[in-house]
Design a protein that fits this description.
alpha+beta, three-stranded mixed sheet, 4 helices, about 35% helix
Amino acid sequence: MMYESQLREAIATLSTLIDHARRGEPSATTRDGRPEGVQPGDEVWQRLARPLSFGRLLMSAPLDADDLPPRDGGMREIEF
C-alpha cells in the first residue's frame, strides 16, 4: 500500500516520507488531489536507475538447461 500525502504535509513531514521509503513503502505526493510525484525506496530506485540491456535481460531469465532445445551441428564455419 502506498502512503499518500498532500504537498504541504510532505514538505512539513519529509522525514516521515523517508521513513516509509526506507521500509520499502513508496510515498505519493499529491497537489490538489492529483498525483505529483512518487518516492520509491532506495532498493527500487537502484534497480530502476540501471540502464536496461538485452544481455542483463537474458541473464536474469529463469531458464534451466532443459528449457532450450539442443543445438544440432555444432559451430558453423565462417569465412573471412
